[in-house]
Amino acid sequence: MFARVHSGVVNASTMLPDGREFIVEIIPKSGLIGELEVLRRQTVSLEYRAGSNCELHFFEGRLLRDKYASDASFREKVFSRALARISELELRIISNAASSLQSRLASTLLRLSAVYGKDVVNSGDELIISQNDLAATLPASREKVNQSLRRLREGKIIDGGQGKIRILNRKALEACANGAVLVK
């Protein structure tokens, strides 16, 4: 079986060696869950859970394997999509290794903005994510994420609380993500 996210977002996570959760990917509306596992006939040790109210549509893995085997155009699309996901993950890992927490947080908020922006009812400027999930996405402690969020709020770059973040100044957030500005 594999699934398509019909609405909402789904978090794909794994555990770090120190026992903390690491959210590897946030899968938006129209995203697929488990398609590569179906095609490779091998499971991946990711846990999937709803990141918001969501609806999933499930499909038989055999249908995907048959289409993949018989349609070269479809095979190319699946391969291209998989490479894009791998490339995005690779860039995040490299960026996270060399960036400050504030820069990583700003980058994550911008990336999530693009994910949330795929839903027609949301412009992408309002994100619904807990501090725990943000910390797991970065990865960082919840306390450090809270401090960085507070600095961004004080700088009037974001606003919100209780699991909601609203981007007020996208240009300033992009500057933080690029390391050009450090909000103190």
TrEMBL record:
Residues 99-171 form the HTH crp-type domain. It comes from the Bacteria. GO terms for cellular component: cytosol. InterPro entries: cNMP-bd_dom_sf, Env_Response_Regulators, HTH_CRP, RmlC-like_jellyroll, WH-like_DNA-bd_sf, WH_DNA-bd_sf. Keywords: DNA-binding, Transcription, Transcription regulation. It holds the Pfam family HTH_Crp_2. Transmembrane segments: none annotated. GO terms for molecular function: DNA binding; DNA-binding transcription factor activity. Gene3D superfamilies: Jelly Rolls, Winged helix-like DNA-binding domain superfamily/Winged helix DNA-binding domain. PANTHER family: CRP FAMILY TRANSCRIPTIONAL REGULATORY PROTEIN, REGULATORY PROTEIN YEIL. This is CRP-like cAMP-binding protein.
